Amino acid sequence: MVLFALAAEARPLPAPPDDADLVAAWEHYGNGQMQQALDDYRRAARRGQVIGEFNLATMLLNGEAGEANQKEGLFWLRKAARGGLAQAQLGLGFVYENGAGVVASQSTADHWFALAAKQGDPDAELELATQYFLGRGVRQNYAIAAVWYEAAANAGIQEAQYIIASCYEHGDGVAIDLERAVYWYRQAANNGDTVAAEKARVLGLATNDGKPL
Fold it and tell me: Which one, 85, 148, 157, 202, has least CB within 10 Å?
């Protein structure tokens, strides 16, 4: 198993232009020169460069320059997450949720999802919403779930758009608002969800005297 594929198929982040090691690493990575990229990221990581820490972790966990190195990869992933990088926090959340090289802990996963979500990471917003909706690792709370689903929906996440539409349709964590439900079903439909398209059509007719909204 490619361990870090758990974390939303994580790949190294683009380099900021003001860091020579990261710029060189990004160029080497793009050219398929994985060992050189790994060495460059390691130099950046050892300087405390958080993107270097994260990118080094992804390469090590995915085994992109030889065999995967779980122990070192998790070390650098934790450093990047503790350094405040949302992508690393999300990734560490997936690691704890799935017990990938660590003792599985949903509450610890939720802690990292929450930190990333509070920075506006849409995937983390979706994950955190789902934990509150299902009551996994946190006390079930539909109202909090709806807040995070709508945040992810506003960021364009199709799954979140469908779910928040359903929340507005059925009153899960929010007051029933069929017009908002139709709006979000249509947004999901615009992102390719055919079931949402039909829900929007039927609900739209029902809420506007037989005429689409």
Answer: 202
Distance CA(156)–CA(158), nearest Å, equals 6
d(CA 26, CA 194): 38
Q: Give the tens place of pLDDT for each residue, 3-14.
A: 454 444 567 888
Render pLDDT for 71-122 as a digit per residue (tens, 0 to 9).
Answer: 999 999 999 999 999 999 999 999 999 999 999 999 999 999 999 999 999 9
List Cβ neighbours of 95 (8 Å cut-off, separation of 6 or more). Answer: 3, 6, 7, 74, 77, 101, 102, 109
Residue with tokens 């929340």: 167
Residue matched to tokens 């398929």 = 32
Asked if 49 and 76 count as a contact pair (C-beta separation under 8 A), the reply is: no
Any alpha helices (H) in 47-139, and if so which ranges? Answer: 50-62, 70-82, 86-98, 106-117, 122-134
CA atoms within 13 Å, Cβ hemisphere of 140:
5
| Predicted TM-score of the model (pTM) | 0.89
CB atoms within 10 A of CB 201: 15
- Domains in the chain, CATH or no CATH each: 1-119 (1.25.40.10), 141-208 (no CATH)
Q: Give the HSE-up count for residue 116: Cα atoms under 13 Å, Cβ half-sphere.
A: 29
